[in-house]
Amino acid sequence: MKLIIKGLLGALLVTNAILFADDAEDEPENNASDTGEGTSKLSEEVYQPRPAASAPTYLAGDWGGHRTALSRKGIDFGVLLVFDDSWNLSGGKHRSHTLGEYEYLLDVSFRLTSDPLLHYTGGTFFTSFESHHWKNPSTTVVGAFVPIDTLEAPGFDELYSLWYKQAFQNNKYWVMAGKSDAYDNFTIIPHASAFINSGYTFQPTILFFPTYPDPAMSIVGFVTIPYNIFLTLGVFDGSLAEGYHTGKHGVIGKFFNNLPKHAFLIGEVDYQWELIKNFSGRLGIAIWKHTAEFTKFNGGTQKGTWGPCITFDQIIYKKDKEEGAFFATYSSSDPSLNAAQRYIAVGATWNGARYGRSDDVVGIGMSRVNFTQDPDAGFTEHYEASFEAFYKLSFAKFGLFEPDFQYIVHPGGKGLENAWVFTLRLQVDL
């Protein structure tokens, strides 16, 4: 069966030749977590830091047993540090200097669960602080439209999230309110979380998605429907579309300030199945709408815009702690006002890639964003594509080391040479 999985990984490269060959002869025609464990988002907790911690122990230890004692009472602290260094080896804007394009993310979180301490069921309070600084390789050296690293963002220090969730009937239904990241509940691809290119995490077609680095005040509800169907609905402060950075402006933002004029609305239906024991799969269909007024490329304006997003993932091999999975996603938007008209990504991951190393993950993936062909948008290429391969090496139960290669075709869609990018990620759960 391992040979089958390896064959499927190789077959993805052949599939790519078909996916991206259509523009090869037609070229002259013419912003934005890492488990790798493959669990469905519907069985996970709502919040996952960027990238999510998977290590069960901590560099700082158990504080003499106090950390475990607090956790048993429903009190959990988290400190996650992620350091990335990327080198543009060729193509793009220009090659990187010796030290590369380095950046970091610090995530400090606190979670209080009501059951053991407050003696009522289903309540969760969560808050987190995040800090990100230093360089952004997509803009400085590569020139890519889709950020090559999930950490990329303008520098910030902010109260990232603060929300309360109340679940009912063993999590079959829940409602949450507060400042949250929309990606924690919508358009998630669990098996894509270990990829470093942000396109596998944040859909470039979704305009002003309230996610990293600008989560927003929101109200989100979740309902379990019979026959393994799940419905999630959310309304977010979408004032980012008006230039108001919700991430940096407290908790409430402009949620109660004429919300109908800048609301981000989203709903997602998920269907889960299990072909045979442990071989589960999921299909998600999301529809989003933004009510703000947008400026078109031709200078006109339009009230509101919307788009669909489809996500799919399937476990294709599972034995003991080894697991192979395949995923895919497709989304689109209005090309008269969004530079990203269509987006597609496919990939595969294999947990337990080496004997005795069940936490290690290997993966390959490819993605393509089709640019709008509106002449006023200024693109000279039809698309930007990326190819990525990584190996996530876990160490000491509290950290990971991840070398990652990417090949970017038509970075930025404006005439730059294809780019080779190498990234090293170090993640430590403190």
Q: Numbering strands along the chain, what is their spatial order in the largest sheet? A: 1-2-3-4-5-6-7-8-9-10-11-12-13-14-15-16
Described by the principal axes of the CA atoms, the overall outline is: globular
Low-confidence stretches: 1-56
How would you spell out the order of helices and strands?
HHEEHEHEEEEEEEEEEEEE
Question: Strand count, sense and closure of the main sheet?
Answer: 16 strands, antiparallel, barrel
Number of domains: 1
Q: Strand fraction band? A: over 45%
Cα distance spanning the termini:
37 Å
At the fold tier of CATH, the topology name is Porin
What is the count of helical runs? 4
The assembly state of the depicted protein chains is: single chain
User: Mind telling me the CATH superfamily name?
Assistant: Carbohydrate-selective porin OprB
Give the mean pLDDT.
Answer: 88
**Amount of helix:** under 10%
> What's the alpha carbon Rg, rounded to whole Å?
21 Å
CATH architecture: Beta Barrel
- What is the class in the CATH system? Mainly Beta
